[in-house]
Task: structure prediction
Amino acid sequence: MTYLDNAATSGFKPECVIAAVSGTLKFLSANPGRGGHSLSIKCARLVQKTRANLLEFLNCKGGNIVFGHNCTHALNLAILGSLKTGGHIITTAYEHNSVLRPLHELERAGKVTLTILSSDISGAVNPKAIAKAVKKETYLVITNHISNVTGAETNVKEVGKLCKKHGLLYLVDAAQSAGHGDISMTESGIDMLALAPHKGLHAPQGIGVLAMCKDLQLKPVFAGGTGTDSVSLYQPPELPESLESGTLPTPAVAGLNAGLHWVKQNMTETRAKLSALSEYALSELKKMSGVTVYTAPKTYNGIVSFNIGELYSADIADILSSQYDIAVRGGLHCAPLIHKHLGTLEQGIVRASFGTDTTCPQVDFFLNAVKEITGSP
Result:
């Protein structure tokens, strides 16, 4: 198979990640922080080491790392945990339903008001538009770093600077960017950042990350066993335990830690490769008759989005799968408002997303398949 659905989950898992997960299952199947025996202590040390490595990787000095089930869980922890009833939240039409749905549920319950901003000509939201939308009740701004539909990149440094100026919290959905480029929470003024480790960090599925700047305290959104202060019938206030009830997925933590090291060693090469492949594929698609390209202008981060005439995107994806054994994604990509903005709510969009192991011959094969579907000479 030619796997071009890496924006959904990375098809390539380094051997070090596989070995870390396997080794943990074989030799370290214990509950971290839930016992005084040697295996439990080793698990706890692995978890703490992974937290420290993530804080360094994200340049989140003195911050906290909270592990969750996935990126959606992490985003919900941030949104619900920072809730100010009667407050105002600013976000964009480019967000995933992991952000849009909890926000709209809060709005429907009458707990917050929302302002949803569209993009400018660059394909991303303009920080000046955010500044104009700030009200006295505003307390939170949420943007993705890279759109999972068009690849458009938000200028998080400018947005972070604006948020600091107005005393607002800034939450970034980095599901599509972590592992593909540098992220500095401290320099960018990001207060909370959610990660999907199974994508750019090549970790297993089943773990999410919420990174939080120092001194930020979120309200717990669920309660349970934490391994600390067990005599109390109330959720402990200390981070990260206050947001991490239940057993942590130690094998996934081990895989994440290994993936993080692999990414650090290979990020420069990966970034250059994704840029070159994306630029080439987009330039060729634009030459084909009947093809509409939706990837943001001059954006080369591995996401290539397009349609062919009036064909439904899901049908194109099915043809590429059944006739060419090429895996891409068709549909709305769990981001309905961007499709409404682009006028593709019915048709959807075909997304090919390249990965670390994608080759030039694979991209050529994909392009030839699209050309055959279009009937281009």
User: Anything to note?
Assistant: The first strand starts at residue 2 and ends at 3. Residues 2-9+266-374 form a domain with the Aspartate Aminotransferase, domain 1 fold (CATH 3.90.1150.10). The chain has a mean pLDDT of 95. Residues 250-285 form the longest helix (36 residues).
